[in-house]
Structure formats: structure tokens, C-alpha cells
Amino acid sequence: MNGERIDASRVVHRQASGFVGFPAGACLDCGDGVDRRSRRNLGKIRVRGRWAVRVNATISFLADLTAALVAATAGGALARALRITPIMGYLVAGVAIGPFSPGYIARGDTFSGLSELGLIFLLFSLGLGFSVHDLRSAGWWPMAANLGLMAFFAGVGWALARALGFAHPATLGLAFTLSSTAIGVALLQEFGLHERRIGHLALALLIVQDLVAVVLLVVTAAPATSLSLAGVTLPLVKAAAFVAIALIIGATLLHRLVITVLRRAPTDSLVGVFSAIALVAAWLGHLAGLSFEFGAFVAGAVTSEAAGGRMAQTIVAPFRELFVMIFFVSVGMLFDVKSVIEHWRAVLLLGAVLAAVRLAGWGALGRAMGWRRGAAVAFGIAMLPLGEFNIVLASAAQAAHRLDRAETASFIGVAFASILLAAVLARLAKMTTFAADAEVVASGHFHEPPDVLIIGYGRVGRTTAAILRQAGASLGVIEIERDLARLAREEGAEVIRGNGSDPRLLDQVLSSGTKLVVTTIPDSRANAAIARRISALSQARIIARASRARDVGEVQTAGALLALVPEAEGALAFAEVALGELGVDRGVIDELIARARSAPPRARG
Predict the structure, then answer these.
(1) How many Cβ atoms from other residues are within 10 Å of residue 64's Cβ?
(2) Cβ(18)–Cβ(99) below 8 Å
């Protein structure tokens, strides 16, 4: 190969920052830091009279990926041992293998595509948890307060950046606006609040912030000289049109596809189907002039509205977690310790003030919602950290020369500090107030197939179980909350602690001996998806809970023998007793109750 003439663009001809583990500063042209084994693996050629290394792309990719996964696994394990969010461990792993640390140096471009996949699956999963009903039920004023706090944080960031003499205080202020959806959801899971109203509201606020991020990305990614009303408005019009078309497709083709897949497809093909939906939608979003992430989020939201969003979340979760882990490793590689130390005063001031303001602001909103102090503190901690979209905004702004290197380094330092602070505060809060597990892996088993399988052991599930137990029925319970699972076990039921909407768990526990399934999860679409899956797998009869009267028909169409709204049934029981006390004839009471039960949802409010 000596003397071979090739294009120099095919040859690594630079300082080895971020190159396949070679020490930073080694000149690969000159052979520094390249041992004989490396030369055999990578190949040796001569360009303009000097030796150069020809990179084997497969070897470099596998080396970088192996280093990232090993470092991330170790970092995540250490973080879990310290009982803080594993995301902090992934970030530290990225710092360890990044170009600004000694030792192995991974190439950033190796992870660019993988981290993009992580964001796509993360946004798709968040879209699966999106519910217009949840946004409506949250009310208008928390949404208004959310936008108001975002504007306030941007103003505080602008004022501090200007006082510190940064060249682009407005852009820096905008970068501090958002909260991290991925880290916020992880912290809510650690607090055990993700399935409760506080968790639903926090997710609704975070999703609204993600939608605002689309606008902010347009503003920060464009050079200041090219910003105009038309330039900002056009992407918003495109986004609205994309959502409208997606809703039409979702109500027709996607609705039928999701229902068919969840009912009939084998479990080993479900990951492929929903991953394909996410990636196709991401590409359509990109082709429409929007972002991959926006397209994936819309696909998740439309899938959730179509059917089976909760079940789809459990299907893509393991696949998503792998790429999200790689995304945060790639973010950690951006952390320049030396540059942060050079600007430590700015990082310390920005970080301290913004952390205090953000904690106070979100905590005050929680208190205004009527939550107890502990819940409000947990909400504030979950909303504190900066994260994925903040990093995307800052990177886009630097590429558009809207942030310089010092500003970006300071921002990255503040973002890392906010994540670390949130992790430490969450650990302290859990030691004093909270005791929920970060994640639930299905555990336990049924020794014998139960007559009745109850999914969800809240008030409705527990009351149902008590009556069935008195009648001599053998019971099996699936419950995700630790305390409720323990309670069910203490009350004599066989319990599997896990996610009742996970199709893999349903496939595992269902047997021919189970005669009846009662699913009491307070989510109509989740119960409809469970009913479809169970009706396709077994002959068991299904009784399901509906969240609203209008959902009864959908749940019964999915395969439930009976769908009930517990609150509505309670109201009918009140009415029945009240009519009896007024001396109304029993036949008239039965007729009125039957008429109310069969009335259209609008007529019942």
C-alpha cells in the first residue's frame, strides 16, 4: 500500500481529539500514539510523503459503542447504588470518554445517529403518554402559569447573562427556559408520582414545554440577521398542517392498524411495528421541514388517541432506554471541564440563582394547586433540571453563531449542575418523605391459575376482590404500586407486581383456568387495549373500568363483557337510595336508573 494515491479526505489528518481511543494531541499523520496492532487493524498509507492511518469504520464504531455502553452501564450502576437517577451516571460516562478527558476518547460522530434515535424514541414514548383529556382536566391556569414561569426564567437568565457580560444574553436566556422531560419523568417515577394526578399534570406541563421548544428552536437556530415574522410563522404553519394530517390518518388507518396489531400480533413483533411507526413519522416530519423529534412525538400522540398508547409504551420502553442512554452519554461528551473551570464564577452564579428561582417557582405552583408541601417539593425537583431540548437549543444556537464557545461551555456547566442538584435533592427528599421505587420489574408468580385476575388494586379493585374472596373465588392480582401489591398479598391474594398493560406479562399469566379478568386501571384506553389482547388470547370474560361515560362503548367494543364508570355507578346508587327514601315506587326507581345508565354520555354530563 506504500505510495498509494488516494484522496486525503479519506484519511484521518488531524489532531486526535475524539479518535478511537488515541491520546488527545497525538498526530496521526506522524504515527504518534499508533502501535503495531493499531496499524494492522487500521491500515497504513502514505500521503504527501507522510504516514497516515486509514480508519476501519466498523472497528472504530464498535470500539466507541463498546466503550460508551460499558461506561454508561458502570455509571448507571454507580448512580443507582447512590440512589440517584441513572441519567447522572450516563452523563458522567460521557464526560469520561469525551474529548476533554484523559484516556479513551470516543468520536462524537459515532453517537450522532444513535443519540438522534434516542430522542426519536423518547419523544414517541412521551407522545404515547400525551392525552388531550389530561391537558383539559389540568385546567387553563396551570398551563398559563407554566408559560408565565418559562418567560420569567428566560428573563432571569437574560438579566444574569447581561450582568456577566455575555455577548448573547437573549439567546442564553431562551436556552434556560425549558425543563428536561426525560429527567423529569425519571424523577417522578422515583417519587412514585408518575401514575398520580401530580405526575399527569407535570407531564402535561412538560409536553407543552416541548411544543414551545419547536418555536424556540426556530428562533435560536436562525442567524439574528435572518429572523423575520415569516421565518418564524412558516414552521408553525407547517407544524399545524402536519398535526392536522396526522390526526386524520390516526383516526382512520393508524387506528385500525394499532387495534389489529395489539389484538393479533405475536409479542416478538410488537417492538418492530411500533418502532417502524415512530421512525416513519420522524422521517415524514423531517421531509415536511420540521424535526425528526416533532414527527415522532406527533406519531406517539396520534397512536395514543387511536388506541393502546399505554400498552405501546411498555413495548418500546426497553428499546427506547438503550438509545436514550446513548443520547445522554453523547451529551456528557460535550462537557469541557477545563472551560467550565475557566468560567466557574459565571457557572456558579447562573446555576445557583436559576436553581433557586426554578425550585421556588415550580414549588409555588404545586402549592397553588393545593398539594401538600412534600408533593410540591417533589414537583419542583422534577421540574428543576435542564436537559435534552435545552442542549439541542444551545447547540443549534452555537451553530448559528448565536452563542460563542464561552457561553456554550457555561450553559453546559449550568445544565450539568442542575441535573446533579436535582438528583441529590431527590435522594434527600426520598429519605425523608418518599419511598417509591424508581422502576418496577415484574416480580412474583401465581402458583395456580386464579379463577379471577384483577388488574389494579386501588379502591375499586380492592373492593371487588373483597367481595369475590367472600364468595370463595381464587384471586390473582397484578399491581404496579409497591404498597398496594403488599396490601393485596396481606389480604390473601396471589400477587404479581408489574405493569398490567404490558402484553408480555399478560401473555405470561393468562391461562385456560382463568375465567374472569377485572381490569380497574383508571385509564379507558389502557383497559381497552388489555381487553383486546385478552380476548384474542383466551376465553376469559372481561369486566373493565371506563374513565368516562363516553368511553364505555369503546371499551366494550374492544372485547369487555361490561364496562363501568365507578363514579357514575356511585352516583346512580346515591340516586337509588334517595328515591327510596322519598317513597318512590320500586318499579319507577328501577326504570329511572336503567334510563340514566343507558342515556347518551352528553345527557349524563
Answers:
(1) 24
(2) yes
43 occurs within a structural domain? yes
- Residue owning grid cell 479518535: 19
Reported as a single tens digit per residue, the pLDDT across 64-107 is: 788 888 888 898 888 888 877 788 888 888 888 887 777 667 66
**What span, in angstroms and rounded, lies between the C-alpha atoms of 178 and 284?**
26
Domain count, the chain: 3
Q: Is the pLDDT of residue 444 over 60?
A: no
* C-alpha of 354 from chain center: 24
Nearest 5°: the CA angle 535, 539, 542 is: 60
Domain-located, residue 246: yes
Using an 8 Å Cβ cutoff, are 38 and 124 in contact? no
Q: For residue 517, what pLDDT is reported?
A: 92
Q: Are residues 128 and 81 in the same domain?
A: yes
Residue 232: HSE in the Cβ half-sphere, 13 Å Cα cutoff: 12
CATH number of the domain enclosing 339: 1.20.1530.20
314: Cα within 13 Å, side-chain hemisphere: 22
Q: What is the DSSP letter of 295?
A: H
Q: Are residues 30 and 146 in the same domain?
A: no
Residues 465, 373 share a domain = no
Whole-number Å distance between alpha carbons of 237 and 231: 11
pLDDT, residue 133, reads 62
Structural domain harbouring 483: 452-564
Choose the final residue of a domain: 370, 398, 432: 432
For the stretch 182-231, pLDDT in tens is 788 778 877 767 666 677 778 778 878 877 877 777 677 666 665 566 66
pLDDT of 22 higher than 50: no
In this predicted structure, which of 191-200, 358-367, 540-549 has the lowest mean pLDDT? 191-200
Between the CA atoms of 489, 510, 526 and 240, what dihedral angle is there, to the nearest 10 degrees?
140
Question: What length is written for the chain?
Answer: 605
Instruction: Please give the sequence-ordered ranges of beta strands (E in DSSP) within 274-407, or none if there are none.
Output: none
Q: What are the cell numbers at 169?
A: 444574553
The answer to whether residue 19 is domain-embedded is: yes
